[in-house]
Fold this sequence. Notes:
The chain is built from no helices and 11 strands. With 122 residues, it is mostly beta strands. A hairpin with a 6-residue loop joins strand 5 and strand 6 (58-60). The chain is globular.
Amino acid sequence: xxxxxxxxxxxxxxxxxxxxxxxxxxxxxxxxxxxxxxxxxxxxxxxxxxxxxxxxxxxxxxxxxxxxxxxxxxxxxxxxxxxxxxxxxxxxxxxxxxxxxxxxxxxxxxxxxxxxxxxxxx
Length: 122
């Protein structure tokens, strides 16, 4: 089993940057693909980015492509999401997830963190 804890959220002005972190417990982190998702009240959870176990493959939603970078440090059991040029539409609760494949479908992930709030002011 994997426990995930996100951090790094906060309030930022439009055009600013944030780096989210997701720390995983256990020694099996490197065997999991990792994903970042976001959700606003009243809407479905939305895929943001994902990364393969080795970090060699990454995938992004069109809405964040070119502005966000997902990375991982398997020695630190941590996955990151660097977000630049933030927009008010990026405001959401961001959660990380662990699964077998770095897919965009939320149902393919087995473990989830509690999330961290990101608020972008205009």
